[in-house]
Amino acid sequence: MTAIVPLQPALGSRTGRLITRDNLEFRDLNGDGELNPYEDWRLNPGERAADLVQRMTPEEKAGLMIIGSHHPGYSRFLPHAEEGRVLNHRDVWRDANPITSQPYPEPVLVTSSTDNAVNVRHQRFLICRDNLGPADLATWTNTVQEVAENSRLGIPAVFASNPRNHVALVAQFGVNESAGVFSEWPNELGLAALDDADLMEVFGAEIAKEWRAGGLHKLYGYMADVASEPRWSRFNGTFGEDVELVTAYIGNIVRGMQGRELSATSVATTIKHFPGGGVRLDGHDPHFEWGQTNEYPTEGALEKYHLPPFQAACVAGASSIMPYYARPVNTSAIQLDEQFWAGPTTQFAEVAFAYNAVFLERLLRRRMGHRGYVNSDSGVIDAMVWGVEELSKSERFAAAVKAGTDIFSDMADPTELIRAIEQGLLADADLNQACTRLLTEIFALGLFENPYVDVEAAGEIIGGAEVAALGEKAQRQSVTLLRSDGLLPLDLTRPVKVHPFVTGRTLIDDVQATLVDSIGRVWAGAEIVDDPADAEIALVWARPEIALFEDDREGVALSVDPRANGVDIDRVREIEQTVPTLLVVNFTNPWLLGEIEPDAAAVIGTFEIHPDHLLRSLAGEDGGPAGRLPMSLPADVAALENSPRDVPGKYCGEDYPYRDRDGNTYAQGHGLQF
């Protein structure tokens, strides 16, 4: 029998420390001149991780179990930014949470200097939030990796990021910091509007190439939450209301980004927010104390509507799962078999899901089969600590680790986790399982063999022509035609006087300028006029928005009325009554359209799109609008308020969806074609 010769992987090293054994090369990561098991790429990731964990100090383990924002030295996020400085050289402490603005009881380290992160606090998981160009991104990640290679054990860094491949006319910290660098696709609701699960695997595989080219290895996404509360500000990040569609999308995106198993070409996915964040009380988010509960008024809703996408993620092998801040409450209807109850007469332990052993260990791991690690959401130790407020920080760390949480997001300081060991709340060995899971991912991603990327290739791959074209086509096809009255398709060559008007919440003047610029570039026959009375056609783009950190306030009711979310309804109606109007509505939530739909000549839905592609779609390029509503629009306020928060609108009966002036029903799946 012929022996199988192992295939030598390409090694990347800036220390030059290599070992030759059996005519094969290995990196000498700890510089001891010996081939240790964790350095031997012939072993499987689990074996290597188990060996490395035994070599780590408690401090090194604790550092591995936190993941915080990290920045280049010239970052706009740093108060001491310095042009041309690649690595951050100074720690940053803040008195309030940078995302929620919630005050901290005492200053918190929000980001470390690179040297302190790697060599003092032993971090290896880092969150990239800067919107860097391809060469800058690759240069920065390579430089950080060089610092990591020179550390005691040579453990490489893992760079994580929020999604970077969606159109963002307005970028937002903590949601979509990146814009205009990577390929640009419609947002998640727009992808859902395509109703094409197969495309999601292609999408995942193609964008993974961009991410790895820049040195990014881990995606905070996608959201498996089935949106069941229309007023939730994070509805926009979901794939909508159809449980089967969301389930298929999540499974295929994991398979696309990771492949059938993690490898040196994969991007590890962190599917969130287990066990489903769409169950919101009046839309309020658990970033805030007044939105902290998950209450289920409908018996069996958790199993029927919210868990299936997470089950698909587990089946597809998602590398990690992120639990949400919220805590379940026992005023809920029955949701789980009694074997998963917290006690003989108590359905839930009323603590946040990152602290909830029944949900993480018994439900997610044992029943649903999750094989990866659990990644907490940001701030579960020092900000959103629902149900464990009375515990100290070290006690919270201990409780979360024992419940099954393996790594803590948006944290740069492991001091309190180390203190939990010193106080006897955790044993050093209690960290081993979490660290083994985390290291297994790093080994599987091939980073121990080569953490470096080709700076020149990054510029060719990130935002490259082929993947960009796929995203642009998806933008055009996601446009959803809800009603038409003869104005479409547009003839972009015919002379016509056009009045463009953008109305909504965020940087509307900038969006107006972008739309006007696109009309001038794409719509050759258009003459822009300022007065709708002088126009032959108006194009109104309504862009309402529920802003998480602006609108979600204690005692303030959230609304899906466009009037309450920045749209000048009176001006829109005035334009519609003056000139035939194309009413384009950008959907981040299921808006109430009763005031602005009837007088429009045509009604179109978008899910974030560059105006160039909106116009081209309305002109029939790629067949014109092909999208279908990924959610049902409520008929009125009463329909919304009479529906349960844990059942998506799609399943709320025939009287729930809005019917327009022509009798079209705006239920999930509605969409016309030319």
Describe this structure in words.
The chain has helices at 45-55, 58-64, 114-120, 134-149, 188-194, 197-214, 243-258, 301-306, 308-316, 357-367, 393-403, 415-422, 432-444, 455-461, 465-478, 508-522, 548-551, 569-576, 611-618, 637-641; strands at 18-21, 24-27, 66-70, 92-96, 103-111, 125-128, 158-161, 218-223, 268-274, 293-294, 320-323, 327-328, 373-374, 408-409, 480-483, 496-504, 526-528, 537-543, 581-586, 602-606. The chain is of the alpha/beta class and 674 residues long. The chain has 2 domains: 43-461, Glycoside hydrolase, family 3, N-terminal domain (TIM Barrel, Alpha-Beta Barrel), CATH 3.20.20.300; 479-651, 3-Layer(aba) Sandwich (Rossmann fold). The strands form 5 sheets. An 8-stranded parallel β-sheet has the order 13-11-9-8-7-6-3-14. Strands 15-20-19-18-16-17 form a 6-stranded mixed β-sheet. Helix 7 packs parallel to helix 9. The model has no long low-confidence stretch (mean pLDDT 96). It comes from Corynebacterium hylobatis. Belongs to the glycosyl hydrolase 3 family. GO terms for molecular function: beta-glucosidase activity. Pfam families: Glyco_hydro_3.
